[in-house]
Prior knowledge:
Number of helices of chain B: 15
Structural class of chain B: mainly alpha
Distance between the termini of chain A: 49 Å
Helix content of chain B: over 70%
Strand content of chain B: under 5%
Oligomer: heterodimer
Number of strands of chain B: 2
Strand order of the largest sheet of chain A: 6-7-8-3-9-10
CATH class of chain A: Alpha Beta
Shape of chain A: globular
Strand order of the largest sheet of chain B: 1-2
Number of helices of chain A: 9
Largest sheet of chain B: 2 strands, antiparallel
Order of helices and strands of chain A: EEEHEEHEHHHEHEHEEHH
Order of helices and strands of chain B: HHHHHHHHEEHHHHHHH
CATH architecture of chain A: 3-Layer(aba) Sandwich
Number of strands of chain A: 10
Helix content of chain A: 25-40%
Radius of gyration of chain A: 19 Å
CATH superfamily of chain A: P-loop containing nucleotide triphosphate hydrolases
Structural class of chain A: alpha/beta
Amino acid sequence: MSTLSTPALSTLGLEKRFGSLVVASDINLTIPHGVRYALIGPNGAGKTTLINLITGMLRPDAGKILLGGAEITAFKPDARVKHGLVRTFQINALFPQLTALEAVTLAVCERQGTAGVWWKPLSAYPDAVAEAYAILQTLGLAADGDRLTRELAYGQQRLLEIALALATKPKVLLLDEPAAGVPREESAELFAAIAGLSKDITVLFIEHDMDLVFRFASRIIVMVGGRILVEGTPREIAGDARVREVYLGGEAA
Amino acid sequence: MAAPASSAVFEPGGHLEAQARWSGWEIAFWLATLLPFLLFPNHLVLASQIAITALFALSLDLILGYAGIVSLGHAAFFGLGAYTAGIMSKHGWTDPFLGLLAGAAVAGIAGYATSFIIARFRHLPLIMITMGLGFLLHEAANSAEWLTGGSDGLQGVRKGKLLGVIAFDLYGYAAYAYALCVLFLVFLAVRRLINSPFGLTLRGIRENPVRMPAIGAPSRAHIRKIYTIAAVVAGIAGAVLTQTTATVSLGVLDFQRSADVLVILVLGGAGRLYGGLIGAVIFLVARDQFSGIAPQYWYFWIGALLVTVVMLLPNGVLGGLAHLTRRWRGAAP
């Protein structure tokens, strides 16, 4: 059984190659419960690939993935979601012709096991709709719940990405550049919403803006060339010479 | 740029109940389906063909319009239903209700079996696979003369009596009444499905099948389910055709039938409950009229109709009407 001392998510020797290109090599992660992690690294470091591997969108060539101590390496993506391992996408992957409320209700129904029920109207499940509405409220989207996704402002669509993930009741939430494409002043708001999520949810996010990373992450993982270079607190990472050299150094120059 | 917030207070539940409620248009539509009995008693055979085709188009709409699964081989299930009902009546089981059940069951089993292939593909490969499966079944029926009568068609199909008493008459009163009843009952079930959680799931698959697993949805299982349901409905449509005409030919499995039903759905408006129904009315009435003018060239006019509708009304006739209604309401104070 998982206890608080069992890590929420861990990987053991995860590897992935595309031909001769090594995109993930010897990835060993141990992520405890409730911690806010940032995953940083230069472009092409393999950050999104790592999220794809963890969530089952890609199959690793070697290694294991454990969720709450249980191995999930062979699970399909949707089965991982049902076990509480959920992600969002860097490029909006939404349902353009569904309203925001419909989209979140869809995810709630799937979690509650009613998504396949075809003989009862959706209105027979007011709880699912109410829950979806409440999620939209926590993210400030409730007023636009009846608008089609494609009509929402870009920043709202980024929030809807997170709303969809929350509807699955994640234990571990992987956010791939949640603020990608959002103007700088709005991205802080978006991260404030993420910071406001329940502490029961373990969060790992990819982000390029170092201000946001240092403000919202309690621990940071630095990836370079498909490997984990170093992991530590923001203070440790800021003071790490190797990180400065390969990553921060390049940007500061 | 923030979009203007909606001014009205938004009721999350009310929206869904409004969606499931019967509108005046719907009631008017179904009342209008009774008009042929009064106004066109000489065209009841055509009317029952329209009802059967509408049912077939409704079945395609479930997979194409709602779940985004394109098929050019949907006649396979129509044909299975038609042959099953025909073969049964030939061997003495003439009760129409029994034939419907059997046609639905055989088509459903075939649909479930092939759904495992269907659920793995999309777009062009899927069109080719469904078309290929349609060809396979057509030629299987062609060669299995002992069972189907091959290219001569099935001989000895008998007309049963509805509820054991009402015979199918020459003018098509019983045929149209029967086809219309079956259409309406299946429509009620489909309508319920569309407004159900599963209906929402289907629209999710249509909108973004790649995202579905990321919200925990087993897309393939959902696709297998709707494909099977659509096959059942197509099988019922095929069985009704056999029972009301007392003939089954290879035409029920023809590629042309798969293509026509796709045209019908596009004309009427895919992904709209009434799209297939309106499309069937337009297509079959047009065929009836145009083939009266020039029997060999009537597809010329269907072609012209298709090009015009798709160019001017990309969402079909119903999509165009919905657009007009929205504009009209928007313009009104």
